[in-house]
Amino acid sequence: MPMKNTAIRDILLEERYRVGSPRSKELFERACKTMPGGVKGAYFHQPYPLTMSQGDGCYVYDVEGRKFTDFANHHSTMILGHNHPAVIEVVQKQLERGIALGAAMGIETELSGEMCRRISSVNRIRFCNSGTEATLHAIRLARGFSGRTKIAKFEGGYHGSHDIVEVSVSPSLE
């Protein structure tokens, strides 16, 4: 029979979560001592986030050794899964040549050309270091092109970590 009292259900679920994840709790408490807010994304998880130790294919494993299906795929950036052999091979080759050399390396020109060729609506591409930087530039570009100042965003969605997109209307700002 389903539980009718959601407060009791929530307490029991949280206790089950805590019992099943003591190592994640310990690691989060340690992280809070040296990083504001604990860890990246901690605000999405209460009472603390699970700490993952590895990924393989469509699965991730927490520090307790439990296996989870990764439906998020790092917000779709891991569309080929974790530890895909072809990805590992090209990353290893690039590491041998060097990364972050502080100058153009040519590989970005090859990639942008291939992307423009494959996506008919794309004429040019600007690579960014993060999603935050990408949304910041996209908003600046859209405002400059349109002359408008307002933007639309999904309430509760992640749009980067900059002032323009972190403002919310729920809960009330008052």
Automatic annotation (TrEMBL):
What GO molecular-function term can you cite, just one? pyridoxal phosphate binding
| Record Pfam families | Aminotran_3 (PF00202)
- Keyword Mitochondrion recorded: no
InterPro entries, per the entry: Aminotrans_3 (IPR005814), PyrdxlP-dep_Trfase (IPR015424), PyrdxlP-dep_Trfase_major (IPR015421), PyrdxlP-dep_Trfase_small (IPR015422)
Asked if the keyword Cell division belongs to this entry, the reply reads no
Question: Which key words are in the record?
Answer: Pyridoxal phosphate
Enumerate the cofactors the protein uses.
Answer: pyridoxal 5'-phosphate
Q: PANTHER family given for it? A: GLUTAMATE-1-SEMIALDEHYDE 2,1-AMINOMUTASE, GLUTAMATE-1-SEMIALDEHYDE 2,1-AMINOMUTASE 1, CHLOROPLASTIC-RELATED
What's the protein here called?
Answer: Glutamate-1-semialdehyde 2,1-aminomutase
Q: Which organism is it from?
A: marine metagenome
